[in-house]
Structure formats: structure tokens, C-alpha cells
Amino acid sequence: MRSASAVLGQEAAAFLARPHLLYIDGHFVPAADGKTFSTYDPSSSEHLAEVAYAGAADVTAAVAAARTALDGDWGRLPASARGQLLARLADLIERHAPELAELEAIDGGKPVVVNEAMDIPAAVEHFRYYSGWPSKLEGSTIPVMAPGTLCYTRLEPVGVCAQIIPWNFPLMMAAWKLAPALAAGCTIVLKPAEQTPLTALRLAELVHEAGFPPGTVNVLTGDGTTGAELVAHPGVDKVAFTGSTAVGREIAARAGADFKRVTLELGGKSPNIVLADADVKAAIAGAFDGIYFNSGQSCVAGSRLYVHRGLYDDVVAGLAAAARQAPVGPALDRSTGYGPLVSAEQYHRVRDYIEDGIAAGATLLAGEVPPAEPAGGWFVRPVVFTEVNPDMRISREEIFGPVLVVAPFDDVDEAVTLANDTAYGLAAGVWTRDLRQAHSLAARVKAGMFYVNGWALGDPAAPWGGMKASGIGREMGRANLDAYLEVKTVWTVYDPQ
Asked: For the chain, what percentages of helix, strand and coil (3-state, to nearest 5) are there?
């Protein structure tokens, strides 16, 4: 297999050849101790680049730079200027979309055609949506009981924000975090996942080109140790994290002890329900995309499918046939629909779950156990399990891979019970022609998002997030903007009695 750099466009290849440094206070600098780490191409397992590894000294420098910007040039900007900078950054991302799509593909394994069609445009639209908000953030005047008194509120930025993003949607998750925080007037230290640092560093170059004041956005690359240093730093006012529930619990405990604001977008084991009156063809296609998009590496993956017994055989047969024909391949190949898993670690995690499902007695209807030592990239073909029960690990735990479990039900009450039998509560959905039944289920199923005859729909204006072990707070929309704002109440006695 040719190396990734041999098939990259000129811009992406040029970026890959540059040093990959930390972005602190408007400068690209090596780690204070000179440490680096490696990043790899999931389609070939080849080494891509050495990236600066941020330690405690770098965290302190980035937080200090963010505080200085908050109290200085960024904090003094008028709201309209913040909006203009966000819009300028959106334009730059759009201008460099082909390059960013390729960098996402080689660093994370998501097919370049998917990045071009969804991830990069979604990042652009996120910055554009929030670019309109800074001049719309208004306090209110409150008619209080006390005579001769003016009471009003101010909306102020929370402060310095630590933002930690995952590897499955790197650039899009950076946009989800950066855009609302910047619109609110906060400053940021962003830490991308160690598996996918490249587009965050390229985004830092675009932030610099857009003209954001130094220190407004800082980017630190590293691993969980870097993230832990950032979460624990006393100069951080808020932590926003997207990732696993296990890490989210640790962050919540530390942030709670320090009384830091926190937003957590965590895992899921989302149920997808096919009722007896569903459009079978649409349900099969929707359920397939719901679990296998991004090779199942999505917190919102519809990984538990419950099908009315009358449709069960048809739906299962359709899913199995589609799984066997899925175009799995290298991320830069334009015929690829489903790329590799992001890393060797994730590959072996998913492989272990497939083996565990077979050992527990589930039927592997489609897919296979991938080899223990793959030749080349970390590819796992779509898997369909039937003959599952709710107590199996493959039914209860988030796998984060292309693994679907399918089970029948006989009535709607049983479907609701099965859907709610989980520690998670991120997303759920139903396929039906009966909208009255759909809205009834939307009220009964415990999830932060509910889809009717679709899956994983999203818009920058619509809140995104979950209940229970799926997190705290919401991404996107006004709800996420509010998470970066403090409300200050001002009392003025202008006519003392």
C-alpha cells in the first residue's frame, strides 16, 4: 500500500511535512520538555507524524495566555467584532475544505467523501451559526418590588475554558466546542484526542490567520495525562468534554471538587425501534446508517435494534445483506463508504466484544471475527448479532464499533421496557407511519434526543445531549451558549428613602 503522503493533495501533504507544534499565546512552540508522540494512518497503520506532547508547564502557559486574553484584547473586543472573527474563521475552513477532509481521513480513518459531505460543512455551519450570536446576547431589566430601585442582569463569559474533544469527529467536535465559547466571549485551551491531533493543529493555523487575539484559542496536543493536567489546573473556570462515560465521571468528580462549571457529552447504547406499521425499506436503510456510519464509532450509534416480530425476519435479512455488501476500505479511496477503526487499541476492543458475543451464545448473522493481527489497516466489517438477550455485554455496553444487536418484541410496552433498560440515555428512535404512536414513544423513552423515521439528525440550532450516564448539559443551540455564560444581577438604588 502506498503511503498516505503519496496520495494526498498538495496542501495536506505540505501540512503533514511541517513540524506539529503546540499553539500557545498566538505562537507555535515545541513542548517545554521537547517531548513528542506519534500519530498513525488507520488505513495502513503507517506512521504519519510526530506531534508535540504538552506537559504541565505547557498547560500552565496556555491557561495563563487564555487568562491574559480574557482580561485584555479579546475581553475588550465589541460583540460585533467577535462575530466577525467567527465568520472569518468559517470562511477559512470552507476555503480549505479539501485539505481538511484529507487530513481527517488519514488521521482518523473516516472516508474522505464523508468528510467532504458532512464533517467539514458541519464545522463551517457551526461557526457561521454562532457568529450571529455575540450581538444578540442581552441581559434583562427586572421589575422588582423595591421602590426607587433598578435591577438588571448582565451576561458575562464564564472565563477560561478547557475543552477536550474525541477522535471520532475531530474537526466537527472542535467546532462544537470552540464556536459557542468564543461567541460568549470566553477564551479556550483545546486538547484534541491523541489519536487525531492533526486537524486541530491545522485549525489553530486558521485561527491565527483569521486574526483572533493571541491567547484567545490555545491548542495543546497530548494524551490523557495532558487532559488531566488541564482539568485540574486552578486557572480553568469551565471544563467541556466529549468522550467516554468512564473518563467523564473522573472529570465530573474533579470539576465538582473545584466548583468548576462542566459540560459532559458522553457515551450511549441507543435503542432504535421498528414498529409493525413501519416502512420496511426505509427502516432497514435508516437502521443501517444509524449503527454503521463512521464504522460505528459514534456516541449516538443506534446499536440496539428492536423490531416488531411481524417484521423481524425481513428487517434482519435486509440488514445482513447490506452488511455483507458494505464498501469497507481505505479512507482516501473515494469508493469507500466505511473506513477502518481509528487505532489498534480500538480494533482489539471491538474484536474482543465480537468474540464475547459469540461466546455468550449470540448468533453472528453477518460479519466475522477480524484477525488478531491485521495486515495493514484496522478494518472491521459490519457485524449483525441476533439471538441476543438484554444481559449480554454486547447488549449493554458501548462497543464503539460496527456491531449491531437485533431483538424482536411483541408490543409497544415491551419495546419501551427494552429501550429503557440501559444506564445510558443519549438517543433513541422509532420507525412508524403512526405519528401519534411516535410522539407517545418520544415521551416514554428516556433519552436526550428522539428521532422519528430518521437517525442522528442535527443542526447547529438544535440542542444535542443526553440523560443519565450519557452526560450533563447540551451541545449546540442557545442551550450550549448559555453553558458558557454567567448571569450577573445588578441592583441600583437611585431614589433612597
From this structure: 45, 20, 35
CA dist 161 and 66 (Å) reads 9
Burial of 373 (0-12, 13-18, 19+ CB in 10 A): exposed
Does the pTM surpass 0.85? The reply is yes
Q: How many CB atoms lie within 10 A of CB 449?
A: 25
Of 99, 102, 229, 299, which residue is the catalytic one?
299
Candidate list 102, 104, 116, 265, residue with the active-site label:
265
Q: Residue 384 and residue 78: Cα distance in Å, rounded?
A: 54
The answer to whether residues 128 and 87 touch, using CB atoms and an 8 Å cutoff, is: yes
265 carries an active-site annotation: yes
What are the tens digits of pLDDT across the range 269-302? 999 999 999 999 999 999 999 999 999 999 999 9
Q: How does pLDDT run across 182-236, given as a tens digit for each residue?
A: 999 999 999 999 999 999 999 999 999 999 999 999 999 999 999 999 999 999 9
User: DSSP letters along 423-437, please?
Assistant: SEESEEEEE-S-HHH
| List of residues 6+ apart from 470 with CB closer than 8 A | 245, 265, 266, 267, 268, 299, 424, 425, 426, 447, 448
CA distance 305 to 290: 10
Contact (CB, 8 A) for 481 and 133? yes
Known catalytic membership, residue 151: no
